[in-house]
Amino acid sequence: MAGDADHEGSQNAKFISLVRFALFYGSIILLVYIVDIFTRKRHPALRSVAILVLGDVGRSPRMMYHAESFAKIEFDTYLIGYRGSKPIPSLASLPHVNFCYLPDPPSFVANIPFILAAPIKIAYQIITILHTLLLEVPHPPEFILVQNPPSIPTLALVWLVGLLRGSKVIIDWHNLGYSILALKLGKLHPFVRIAKLFEITFGSSAYAHLFVTQAMRDHLVDQWGLVGHKAVLHDRPPAHFHRCSPTEVHELFLRLGPTLNTPSLSPFLPSPSPPYATSFTRSITSSGTMPPPYSPLPSMPGPQSYARVNMPNLRPDRPALLVSSTSWTPDEDFSILLEALKLYEARAREVNQPREKRSSDDTLPRVWMVITGKGPDKEKYMAEVDRLQQSWEWVRCTSLWLEAEDYPILLGSADLGICLHSSSSALDLPMKIVDMFGCGLPVCALDFACLHELVKDGQNGLIFKNAKQLAEQMERLLTSFPNSAALAELRMSLLHKANPMEGPLVDLSNHEEGEDWEWNTWTQNWNRVVKPLVLRDADRN
């Protein structure tokens, strides 16, 4: 008991010390800049931007694409966020990009009750963000671009720093922070109401507002009366997202080979024979046979005879590769996919009976369902998957974590994408579908209010409302795989009028009410929407 009391006393002492430090250090920073703002006029450095994302920089594709676009028009670009996944490779090669990583909270915070940990984390975030924006960024940036959500404390901090440093604030509205909090606490919870008031107070005024959907723009302009320039910037993938060639698929699965050697997956996938064959591709000789197993060149001199090995092709006996990317959070109900996989397994057993027992010649393939991403519910659901697939014959479900450079190659190698995103606000669109479309990958997507801005049912994908519909769509698209006519039709619509230098183009000219919506690359979209905003006053300055 005495030890517990000493430990509790030590934790309280650390908490008090940190609060004192936060108040002292924060007061010094604010005092310096308040004095400075009244003693001389601040002039932000032109063609400079600080981009703030309160999360893992490498898992924030839209903000990384913003940074890349700013750097390409020669803005000094400071990308601020937490370390974690590797950023996209192109950022490292651009001369104008600077990474400013925020430090993680002290380790002891993870061992104290939430009621104490939460204010410590927020206080620590306030200190580190202010320190970075006010001291580490060498000159006041012309623009501060902030991702929302999270709203607390970032919206208030960029508002304050914009006031102190004379920077123009741009808010990139991905979703509504209070609506995500409501998933956990309920819409009527006092914290949700406070969060909404905070978001309205500090998010209503900015130099410019960017929105991922037209629905979000209309809602916030109507309900919150936003002040500043307002523009819809639909998500688009970067130009290097594309449908992969068999050679690219071959190289990917050569790299992934060791990670696929698991007790449940190895017997399910076709046997690989590196370097000539993976579970999805194989190279054959000019005579139509598989090359012999690889061995070092013989050391004995003399003429040798070698058969020419052709470029890899997709294996006809490969399983259908399905991909879903998830953050394993309440706004993505994985149980829908799990139930659909159960129904598909049962249906595949029925359809793939011996020929004499079938009612038709149609067959269903084995399905390998790959789930990418990290999140709080991952362990719970994957434990259930492991239990179920011990008796499954036609389905395997695996969780994979991929580096940024391999993720688009996996999408470009897959046969069908699955999206479970339901949107806490019903006003945002899932970036994962955008990435899939960029890689020429058709999707089955869970229906919600503004999904029609992206997915055209029957044209570039299919929309489902429940697990039964998803299982039926999987069966429809995968029947007679790899020669499925329904799947090929969706894929062709995504590759319609594709420009190989700019990525796939989706023909969505029949958008509702006659509105033309042309699918283009991130760069084309950004240059059309954002570039005029940030260069608006350049000539006069």
Would you give an account of this structure?
The chain has 541 residues and is α/β, with parallel strands linked by helices. The protein folds into 2 domains: 21-232, 3-Layer(aba) Sandwich (Rossmann fold); 246-283 and 309-516, Glycogen Phosphorylase B (Rossmann fold), CATH 3.40.50.2000. It is globular. The N and C termini lie far apart (68 Å). It contains 17 helices and 17 strands. This is Glycosyltransferase family 33 protein.
Write the layout of secondary structure elements.
Elements: H1 2-39, E1 45-56, H2 61-72, E2 76-82, H3 89-93, E3 97-102, H4 114-136, E4 141-148, H5 154-165, E5 168-173, H6 177-185, H7 190-203, E6 205-211, H8 214-224, E7 227-232, H9 246-256, E8 281-282, E9 313-314, E10 320-325, H10 334-351, E11 367-372, H11 378-388, E12 395-400, H12 407-413, E13 416-419, H13 431-438, E14 443-446, E15 461-464, H14 467-478, H15 485-494, E16 507-508, E17 517-518, H16 522-529, H17 531-534
Parallel strand pairs: 1-2, 1-4, 2-3, 4-5, 5-6, 6-7, 10-11, 10-13, 11-12, 13-14, 14-15
Antiparallel strand pairs: 8-9, 16-17
Helix pairs in contact: 1-4, 4-5, 6-7, 9-12, 10-14
Task: Please name the defining characteristics of this protein.
7-stranded parallel β-sheet, Rossmann fold, 541 residues, alpha/beta, 6-stranded parallel β-sheet
Major beta sheet, strand line-up: 3-2-1-4-5-6-7
Helicity range: 25-40%
Shape: globular
Total DSSP helices: 17
Provide the gyration radius in Å: 26 Å
